[in-house]
Write a structure and sequence with these properties.
The complex is a heterodimer.
Chain A lengths: L1 H15 L4 E3 L8 E3 L4 H10 L5 E9 L6 E8 L7 E7 L5 E3 L9 H11 L2 E3 L46 H4 L20 H14 L10 E6 L11 E7 L2 E8 L7 H7 L5 H6 L6 H16 L5 H30 L4 H21 L8 E2 L2 E2 L7 H24 L3 H7 L7 H6 L5 H5 L6 H4 L20 H25 L19 E9 L2 E9 L5 E7 L1 H5 L3 H5 L4 H11 L3 H5 L1
Parallel strand pairs in A: 2-5, 6-7
Antiparallel strand pairs in A: 1-2, 3-4, 4-5, 8-9, 9-10, 11-12, 13-14, 14-15
Helix pairs in contact in A: 8-9, 9-10, 9-16, 9-19, 10-11, 11-16
Chain B lengths: L3 H24 L7 H7 L27 E7 L5 E3 L6 H5 L5 E7 L6 E11 L8 H5 L5 E3 L10 H4 L1 E2 L1 H4 E3 H7 L1 H21 L1
Parallel strand pairs in B: 1-7
Antiparallel strand pairs in B: 1-2, 1-5, 3-4, 4-6
Helix pairs in contact in B: 7-8
Classes of the chains: A alpha+beta, B alpha+beta.
Chain lengths: 580, 199
Amino acid sequence: MLVKTSSDGIKDLLSRYGDSLLADTRPGFGGYFIKTEQLVPFCRSLRDEAGYDYLSSVTGVDNFPEDQMEVVYHFYKTIGGPAFVLKVQASRHETVIPSLTPLYPGVEFQECEAWDLLGIRFEGHPDLRRILMWEGFEGFPLRKDWREPFFEDENKPFKSRWPDGHVLRTEEENPYKNNVQYPAAFDPDQWIPAGDAALYEGLLSLTKEGQSDFKTDHIVVNLGPQHPSTHGVFRMVVALEGETVLSLKPVMGYLHRNHEKIGERNTFVQNMPFTDRLDYISSMSNNFGYALAVEKLMDVHPPERAEYIRVIMAELTRFLSHIFSIGFLLNDLGAFFTPALYAIEERELILDIFEAASGSRMMCNYFRFGGVVRDLPDGVLGKIKDLVIDRLPRKLDEFERYLTKNDIVRVRCEGVGVLKIEEAIGLSAAGPVLRASGVPYDVRKADPYSIYDRFDFDVAYGLHGDIYDRYLVRVEEMRQSLRILKQALRDIPGGAVMNGKPQYQVRVPAGEAYGRVEGPKGELGFYVISNGKPNPWRYHVRAPSFINLTSLSTMAKNQKIADVVALLGSIDIVLGEVDR
Amino acid sequence: MNGWGIIRGLGVTLRHFFGTYAEDLRRGKSRYFTKQGVRERSASTVRGIFTVQYPEEKLIIPEEFRYLPFLVYDELESGEKKIRCTSCGICAKVCPPQCIWIERTTDPVTGRPVPAPVAFYIDIDICMNCGFCAEYCPFDAIKMDHDFEIASYDRKAEHIYALEKLLKPAVYYQSIRPENFAREEASRMEKEAKTSSKS
């Protein structure tokens, strides 16, 4: 019933804002354009009246050579259902769009990202700064007229490779040749990044008010970038009073390689192995999301057997990612490597299956548009059955016996880093972080893709939103994954695994598509625009670990600094995906 | 009871600890440094220690495992090497990081392209091991290798593989991927039979 009233609500809204709304009628496109000045009031009504409380993704699009920049918003309801797509346009020269941070605080980093890479300024954003590139970087790399150093061609394949391919190392073109040399006026010892000074100052100014009676100095501490708890190169700048965190800002981008620019240079097929490298723990899920998005555009559907294989692979990935993250959460709590290595044993066995099927343990590159690369080789299905029916449930029980009731784990995790339900939704948290806060929102149920509507499983969710609940949600999700796997292994049919002949250059009709899957870390979305050419015009990744980090500073407030380490572990970030 | 969870948890680690030795005693010497031992330790029924002690022991590599690409040649009865590659350029076009360079042969007399590569380079520092080249090659000419021990002392001299280094005989391909090889040979025979029956 709830759904019905809300769908009436949206109709009501659309007629009320009729003057400033314009349906996107380009073939293959959907959603509505809204006038810039009406964006904030409309979104307020959208959230409060129509029930679209979850702003999943913000994407900037450069419509070069037209003088036009576009921002695409994907709204969802946390009670499930399809997206509401809203678009705003502005000039490329003076791109200013009102910020949605007051309504949906979860867009903070996404708006920063659009500013950083596309030069879209969001008016009213509390801290609009470069988030992935460094301060002082010249230009906006995702703009279509921006070119990287040693630029060769707009699109791959490059002409220099064939038929007259003379091998050349890019470093040969490097002015400094084989070694790095600093510019004349640059002294690395004296250099302080301009952005950092502002960052520290900003953090301390936030903490000036509300000093306690006990006068202590507020100090700024950098956790990272080289710190074992950050699982990669990642920095948290923390303002402290004593041991208590007053405010925190994550600093990222150390692993930034502009995945999206690479993606827009690539052909559609070439992007598949690059998606492996986003969240490199769960490459099968990444493949899944990208394949879904492009298949939507191409309007192809994989055969039955391929669908089952995809689900099997995705659920195995979820299992291994969750058990791995729990192992490393315990590492962060101080149980140095014993639980992590127990987790790695199970992960290793699953990776063996991936290796046998796809050829690689981590960079699987197993999905294609319209199916999967190859059928499971002989014996692999049997191996999966052995794991799913016997080993994994047994080991999961052992893991729980080992950890769940452990007093130290409970003391360190219960009530720490609480994210309240309304905060979690507002901050666009996804995956176990969102569900642990009490929102049973799972894309597999809320907006089923592939063949997930056929399986019988429950959505795990917590009530307290603390670290312990995130742990419990992950454990329960692993059990549910095993449940899905059992059903999939029972029902998997025979037949082909690929529709049509494999093609190295697929034809993708013009249009836009947003494909999203419930990855292990949360909602993983791929927004792809095709203009009918061999390369995507726009390729955007809604990276769950990146957006989940938006809620880190809310969670960390007034916690002890030692708990920040555990908190970061409980969000389960992978830097390959955060920095892209 | 306070601390009971810890004690139960410690029981798990203790079982793992003793399990290692119990399994070693039970299985004896065949557990380590034998192929059988490695196979047992990487099966889902494994008990005790799990680690494979590289380089004395190596994991068993499945047939589909892919590392770097290599070019296949057939050995003719005359002893001549017949390179399967026709330098059609599909691998260079589909390669995501664009690490393949091919120079096509041209006939010195007519100036027309000849279907054979005069030079073929793969920059293995750039190769991302995705396997697209092998997947989309219509002539089964480029395949993914199993040899992953490629460390060298000089990356500048050794990390761009030229034609001579890339070429490997079909017999080698058969030895690392017997099932794929058999499947491809069968389909080739079928095609040849079709064309010969037509003509």
